[in-house]
């Protein structure tokens, strides 16, 4: 999907050479516009993949390409573009972002406008928007303005789609797990389209420093042709530590001006006229400094017309910068599934057996897979039963998925049961970075077996996740939920340190004033509740997830996004910003003349057994199996020596379609990667290579 998109953009740029802008107004040639069609496909992906919010003219017929103001009357071009070419539109006016950061979460609101500069004034074309989002991004809402009409998004329950008159023209697609694209139909050549889009994303955390990276790098070919066209960039950044501690700014990519400062809060503004649009992402980093481990509890009343009557709470722990707090020793087993029919339960049982006698260190299992299996619920129930019925309570299981064919919710649930961590790489190129990030977080545990006291007297309690993960140097710990009753003034958190001594800390509870912590925890709660609904098969829990998804605006597996069209002479319904205040439980009222366009589900589903059985490569259908394997070996080679004091690797490969010696080569490479640490055992279930 991503490769086809990039190829369509490349062809669109080639078509745009037909456009005549007048004397002395020829656009400067760029590397992107002059690149040969024989370039490597992997290079095509990166060159033309969007790195900021973009708009494209969808061109099925080359003859419609021309300057709407100065027709060139070029010869007719026969034929059609299959698939349609995508011509990047010129961006005009103001590119603005408003960003709110709290704890490890950011809400981003982007607005911008583009002119359909490449389509005849007598013609119409669809306009495709692409919205790249940052770390673990989730699309929350969209508003689009075009000549004579506007569109706004809404989440609906999946079952309600059958009750509405819905057009399929939106063609929403999620590419590489973090870039969402959709179409607006039939826009007149020469007109202007504008968008306001809201998404959420996470901040990266490392040794007390938070880093925000928002896609804001525009390619040269979106700069409009003409010397007097105004271009202005504006970024409003609001930062709240959420913990009442001083914020220390480290670095920024754009020239921010400080607007305000108080304990735990800061405001910044970047506002500038520019000659060309920003060619770098917006990056901002800051420290919430504390030498020692610290934390707190935030309380908040339910939102207006909340589907849940319970009060909201959130407690957090930060690892601090005390280097004397050593990380636990680890005994690690890697269970690696490589591109065949997958069998997870057998090697998982073998790994647990190998680690059963572990003492004075944390036994840690990393499960890495690109496929789905039929007995996933049995696997979760087996591990849950083992840990509940006298098994090793210190066992940790972290999971890593590659591509969209594996069941992310199974992997998330297995990691939750095993008090570990979960991450995903949607394409082979991101395997190395994301796997190293997971290994670093899961293997730098400084406080284990965490429990919460003083909550037993509450009338009711929902805590997510129910099994509290360990505190790692690589990530703050955030647990949230709902309760009814009188919440205590303080909560006692207990855990085990590396020397096996007990550690306790009292966290004071306080009302969350001017802190949108409901936004901070919304995505976490939706993901965890979805995993619970999948494991239990509870329709009631699925309904709860859907309603909470609609209320918070965070997409889920049980909701769909639609676009409602409103003509300019009609009274527009509530905007997505007003809906944030008055919630979105009830469908918006719309007149009979309104059109509704289906964008579809914004999530990844529950795995693909057929694709797994068919040995389709991970990430994208175009990625060759050998490429993904090489990425996996490289990541394992880079990480194995750092994460474990003693290590073992178990590869399970079934019905492999590789060449005869591919599996042996892979296993030898992984063994070589593990040679720098003490191996407790190396056992492999080899494939049948024919």
Structure description:
The chain is α+β, with helices and mostly antiparallel strands. The radius of gyration is 26 Å and the shape is globular. α12 (625-643) runs parallel beside α13 (662-674). The protein is built from 13 helices and 34 strands.
Shape descriptor: globular
Report the span from N to C terminus.
31 Å
Widest sheet: strand order? Answer: 8-32-31-7-6-11-4-3-14-17-16
Q: Into which percent range does the helicity of residues fall?
A: 10-25%
- The helix-and-strand class reads alpha+beta
> For the residues shown, what is the average pLDDT?
82
Per DSSP, what share of the residues sits in E-state strands of 2 or more residues?
Answer: 25-35%
Number of strands: 34
Specify Rg, calculated over alpha carbons.
26 Å
Q: Count of DSSP helices?
A: 13
Low-confidence stretches: 31-43, 575-592, 619-626, 653-668, 671-690
Largest sheet: 11 strands, mixed
InterPro entries: vWFA_dom_sf
Organism: Salix udensis
Protein name: VWFA domain-containing protein
């Amino acid at each position: 999907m991503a490769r086809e998109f990039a190829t369509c953009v490349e062809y669109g740029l080639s078509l745009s050479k037909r456009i005549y802008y007048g004397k002395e107004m020829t656009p400067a040639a760029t590397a992107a516009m002059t690149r040969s069609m024989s370039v490597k496909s992997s290079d095509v992906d990166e060159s033309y993949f969007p790195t900021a919010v973009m708009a494209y003219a969808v061109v099925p017929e080359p003859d419609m390409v021309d300057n709407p103001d100065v027709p060139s009357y070029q010869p007719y071009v026969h034929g059609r573009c299959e698939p349609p070419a995508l011509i990047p539109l010129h961006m005009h006016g103001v590119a603005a972002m408003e960003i709110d950061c709290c704890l490890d979460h950011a809400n981003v609101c982007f607005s911008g406008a583009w002119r359909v500069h490449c389509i005849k004034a007598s013609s119409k074309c669809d306009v495709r928007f692409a919205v790249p989002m940052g770390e673990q991004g989730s699309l929350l809402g969209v508003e689009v303005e075009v000549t004579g009409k506007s569109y706004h998004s809404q989440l609906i329950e999946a079952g309600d789609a059958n009750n509405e008159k819905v057009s399929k023209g939106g063609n929403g697609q999620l590419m590489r797990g973090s870039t969402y694209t959709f179409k607006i139909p039939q826009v007149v050549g020469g007109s202007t389209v504008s968008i306001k889009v809201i998404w959420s994303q996470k901040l990266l955390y490392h040794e007390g420093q938070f880093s925000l990276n928002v896609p804001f790098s525009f390619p040269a070919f979106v700069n409009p042709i003409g010397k007097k066209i105004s271009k202005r960039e504006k970024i409003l950044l609001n930062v709240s530590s959420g913990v009442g501690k001083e914020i220390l700014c480290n670095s920024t990519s754009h020239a921010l001006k400080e607007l305000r400062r108080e304990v735990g809060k800061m405001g910044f503004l970047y506002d500038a006229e520019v000659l060309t649009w920003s060619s770098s992402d917006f990056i901002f980093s800051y420290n919430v400094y504390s030498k020692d481990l610290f934390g707190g509890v935030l309380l908040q009343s339910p939102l207006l017309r909340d589907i849940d009557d319970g009060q909201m709470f959130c407690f957090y722990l930060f690892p601090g910068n005390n280097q004397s707090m050593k990380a636990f020793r680890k005994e690690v087993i890697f269970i690696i599934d490589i591109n065949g029919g997958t069998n997870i339960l057998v090697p998982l049982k073998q790994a647990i057996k190998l680690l059963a006698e572990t003492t004075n260190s944390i036994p840690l299992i990393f499960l890495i897979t690109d496929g789905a299996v039929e007995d996933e619920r049995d696997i979760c129930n087996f591990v849950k039963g083992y840990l509940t019925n006298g098994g090793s309570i210190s066992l940790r299981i972290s999971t890593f998925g590659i591509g969209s064919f594996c069941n992310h919710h199974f992997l998330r649930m297995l990691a939750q049961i095993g008090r570990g961590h979960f991450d995903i790489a949607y394409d082979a190129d991101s395997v190395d970075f994301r796997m190293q990030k997971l290994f670093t977080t899961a293997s730098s545990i400084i406080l284990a077996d965490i429990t919460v006291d003083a909550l037993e007297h509450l009338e009711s309690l929902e805590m997510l996740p129910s099994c509290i993960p360990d505190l790692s140097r690589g990530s703050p710990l955030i647990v949230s939920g709902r309760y009814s009753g009188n919440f205590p003034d303080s909560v006692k958190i207990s855990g085990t340190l590396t020397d096996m001594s007990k550690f306790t800390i009292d966290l004071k509870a306080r009302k969350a004033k001017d802190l949108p912590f409901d936004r901070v925890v919304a995505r976490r709660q939706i993901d965890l509740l979805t995993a619970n609904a999948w494991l239990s098969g509870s329709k009631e829990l699925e309904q709860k997830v859907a309603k909470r998804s609609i209320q918070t605006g965070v997409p889920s597996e049980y909701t769909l996004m639609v676009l409602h069209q409103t003509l300019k002479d009609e009274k527009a319904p509530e905007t997505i910003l007003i809906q944030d205040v008055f919630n979105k439980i009830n469908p918006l009222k719309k007149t009979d003349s309104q059109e509704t366009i289906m964008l579809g589900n914004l999530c990844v589903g529950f795995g693909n057994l057929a694709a797994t059985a068919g040995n389709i490569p991970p990430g994208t259908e175009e990625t060759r199996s050998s490429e993904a394997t090489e990425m996996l070996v490289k990541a394992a080679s880079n990480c194995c020596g750092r994460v474990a004091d003693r290590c073992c690797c178990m590869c399970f490969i079934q019905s492999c379609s590789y060449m005869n010696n591919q599996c042996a080569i892979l296993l030898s490479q992984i063994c070589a990667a593990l040679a720098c640490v003490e191996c407790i055992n190396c056992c492999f279930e080899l494939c049948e290579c024919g």
